[in-house]
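Write out this protein's structure.
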Amino acid sequence: MRKEMLKDILQAFGPAGNEEIVSGVIAEYIRPYCDSVYNDAMGNLICCKKGTSGKKIMLSAHMDQIGFIVVDIDEKGFLRIANVGGILPALSVGREVAFANGVHGVIYFETPKTRDASAQAALPNMYVDIGCSTKEQAEEKVQVGDMCVYVTNMVDMGNRIASGAMDNRVCCAVIVEAMMALQSPHDVYAVFTVQEEVGLRGAAAAAYAIDPDFNINLDVTLTGDTPKMPAMSVALGDGPAIKMMDSSVIVPMSVRKFMIECAEQAKIPYQREVLRAGGTDTAVIQKVKDGILAGCISIPCRYVHTPTEVVDMADVDGAVALICEMVAKEQLPGA
């Protein structure tokens, strides 16, 4: 994996519903390796490399990130906020945030003397301070409806990388890297979807338009390898995970078998993933039209939905290799 590319994609602004900037960054990296690159009406970025078989494979990963939306600006210039996706309020206090126009601020919460301050770290009591003292000053910089995201660094720890927006930009980078290298007899569509974090909204529209014979979705998943975590047979560094099931989807047996056989034939280390709660775009893609065969490669990730999500580069590189192995097969599952 090209770490500079990963860093650029991780740090691009793109909360759900406002993915234009990150879409542009991804498009610049992938354009030289595709026959067509365009955005659909919802904002999904769709990139196609043509084959000759008449079959279509769709690789998908959501490019939106969690964030905050301004719901009110008070008379002293403080921005009241709501969540865009699965925010953890207690981990947001004291964090720097940035808006698309470059305005920065910090998040804090009300601390009334008559109540326990520690209990106030909940979104209705939180605000963003952008350094203004009046509503008029604040409105010159930010408007109700504007969104902001955590400001984070990419921390390179050697084999492991920490950053905000790893969910799901690491998978976007995996697809770009794979498109640079893959050889396939099929039409391969790389689709970077919008609004996954607020209800899996973009993927269904893209899948409906493309109508692929086979979908490989990519997303991060939880791990069971940190202290006192619930039992889960996924760990950093043991390879990309092949999804069996989560709370939104059961992957068809034919797809599981195909993915496992590809991994084993290429001697790519892999894990089996069963996620107790949570879902991915795989679920909505599977239900498009009269049904699409869909599977999911999951990148093990610690501290999901925080500003410091951690992945292992061996798992990332393994996911790239597994994609290349699968799309090279002439015979697809269900054929």
